[in-house]
Every structure is written in structure tokens, then in C-alpha cells.
Amino acid sequence: MKNNSNDLSRRSFVATSVAGSALAASARAIAAARAPRVIGANDRLHIGMIGAGGNATGHMKRLIEIQEAENTEIIAVCDIYQKRLDAAAELTGGKPYHDYRRLLENPDIDYVVISVPEHWHAQMTLDAVDAGKHIYCEKPMTYNIEEAKRVRDRVKQSNVKMQVGVQGMSDDSYETAQRYIKDGKIGKVVMAQIDYSRNHVDDFWTRPYDDDVRPGENLDWDAFLGPARKRPFDPDRFFAWRRYWDYSGGIASDLFVHRITRIIKACNLTVPSRVVATGGQNFFSDSAAEIPDTFNMMVDYPEGVSVLLVSSMANAAKIRHIIRGHEGTLEFTKEGFTITRERLFAKGCGEGGAKAGSEECQPIHHIKTGAEDTRLHHANHHRAIRFNEPLKCDVDLGFYGVLACSMAVESLRKKRYLAWDARREKVVKA
Description:
Layout: H1 5-17, H2 19-32, E1 45-50, H3 54-70, E2 72-78, H4 82-92, E3 95-97, H5 100-104, E4 111-114, H6 121-130, E5 134-138, H7 145-156, E6 162-165, H8 173-182, E7 189-195, H9 221-225, H10 235-239, H11 251-267, E8 274-280, E9 294-301, E10 305-312, E11 322-325, E12 328-332, E13 336-341, E14 364-367, H12 374-387, H13 395-414, E15 418-421, E16 426-429
Parallel strand pairs: 1-2, 1-4, 2-3, 4-5, 5-6, 7-10
Antiparallel strand pairs: 7-11, 8-9, 8-15, 9-10, 11-12, 12-13, 13-14, 15-16
């Protein structure tokens, strides 16, 4: 695994150096930003798609499935690879754009779906806010913490409705678990554990190359790189960008952001106090990938809750997804979740006991409504735009996910135990 610690330091330096000018630019942008169009309950929502890769195509297909029920229409698509752009235009009937900034100038677009590599999320989001467009942005909300702070603040200063694409939040299990935990059903929460693992054979997280791609002819490679380090074209970096630090946090930002957001929601957590990560290329040691194939992170929260996340790309065996309380355990299942009491607090519940058969002794079973479904997540976003319904994954929740996962990536790469200075909103040594 390539460490690239110098690259990390360079990016951190650049982020710090531009902070002052970013504040001034933000003030100017707020004054200049357009307000979103006022949308009535029966008005059709017009959508612009930024990105037309595999994930984005999945969004397009799901949006087409629900467009009649949701009264929506994809009217514009954008991509830097002509072949993907042509396919997206044919699929949706939307007007094709090579440059997302030109798409944002289209006054008929009400909201955009941003489904592109992570290192572009922040700039596209900020530009969309300035253009007065509502936003559905794939997870993670941004590539790093400084970007997440800017996006969070900018969106909250606007009238834009921004949904972060952690679609698991459209499964009601996590908000329902929060209510049970608040009601004391498992006592004081002390720990949670969750995982996201897969398995591969020759190499991990690879993608097939498209032999039709020709940089400078049908692919704008410089536009792909954007704010990242300038490099010659590399098909693996284009088609399998999640394997490289310049564009992604790997397991943390692509997989763990789904998992940690569930625990944050269920336990009503916000910002961590300390984070540490371990891992490396424990199996695919000859891979060209820079990210690890094994990644584990421990996140401590000031509420006295420790969260453990485990992942391997060389073994898909699962662990139980549980929240441990002093008096009981909540376990998430495919159907929803189950709460069982700890034996110490279930006295009299055994056979022949004084409380046997009572409601107090019975496990609590929640059968979920909703699902980890992008169609439901989009529908929630549409209702937020039309009726001001609360978003399932707003910019605050998006920020908390980026914060934990980005701190874990930095911990692994710098081999440091890190803390969050909540007053200054800054990562420091623990």
C-alpha cells in the first residue's frame, strides 16, 4: 500500500492556507447566490444529473421508475466522458452537458443529483447552492473535514434542501432505535459495533476498463482531476478511483460512512472526542491501490460511547450489528431490530419466575418500514423541497459522518491517535 504521507500533508497545508480567503469568498457568495424557485405541491420537479457513471446511472434508473408518482423529470445530464454522456442522454432524454457549470445555468432545473468522485463533491455542491439548486449529493458529503464545514455552513445559510446519499437513513429502524434508547430500554449506551466487509480474488475494488476511452478526444481527464494532483492519464485511477487517496477515503468514506451514520442516528451522537484506526494491505500486498484492504476504526464520543467498525476486503464474514447498553442490547437485523434485556436486569423473567410472561420480560421486536432504498431517499428529498418535510440525511448528519471517517483515514495514514477540538472545530493530537 502506497502511503503518500507527503500528499496528505500538502493537502492539509493547502486547506489551511485557503481558509481565510474561503471565508471572504463565502460572504460574497451568500450575497450573490440565487434563491431556489418556489415549488408548489403540484409542480413538476426538474432534475439535472451531474455524473453518468455506474452509480449515477443507478440513480437515473430509480428516478425514472418513480417519476410518474413523484411528478419529476430528468431534463439534463452531464459527464466528462462522451460515451457515458451519450448513454445518459439516451436513457433519460435529458439535454447533455460536458461542463456541470453550464448545466447549473439552466433556469429550468430545480435540483441536481451529484454522483461523481468524492474529491469533486464540495465544489459542485457549493456551486449548486450559488445557482439556487436543491441538491442530492452522494455520500460522503465531502472529501475532507474542511470542505464539510464549508458545505454545512453554506447550505444552512441558504434555502437549499440538501440530501446526503446515505440511503440507509430512509429505513426507519435507526430513528426508531433512537426513541427506544432515549426511553431507557437498554440503559446507558456504552458501545456499538458494526462492519462492512467483502471478498475479492486477484485484486480488490477493481473495475473493468473501457477500451473506448481516449483522453483528449472523448474524455476530459483534466476535468476529472479537478482539485486533485495533476497526473498523466491512468485508466485505473479513472475507472477504479476509490482505490486512490487523491479521490477517496476508500473503505472509510465509501462503506463506513453508511455504517457510522446509522450508529450516530440511533445513539443520537454528533461529533467524536477521539478516533484511531488500524489496518493495511494485509492480503492484496501487490495491489496498485493506495487504500488498505483491511480497515478498522474506533470512535469515542463525549457521551461515553465507543463505536467499533470492522472491514476486510479479503473476507466477507459478518459480525453482529449491535448497540450495547448497560441494561440491554439492541441488535439490527434484516427485518429491523430486536432489544433483549441483560440477565442482571431480567430477574424473575425465567421459567416460573415472578415476572415470567410479562411484557417487561419479552424481547422488543421492531419490523422496519422503509428500506435502504435510493427511491425512498429521493422521495423524502422531494417532499422536503415541496412541503419542508425533515430530510433523512441532512447536512448536519452528513457532516458528522465525514468527520468520523476522515479522522479515521488521517489516523491510519499518519499513524496517530486523534482528537476533535469542538470549540475550534479542528483535528488535534489526542
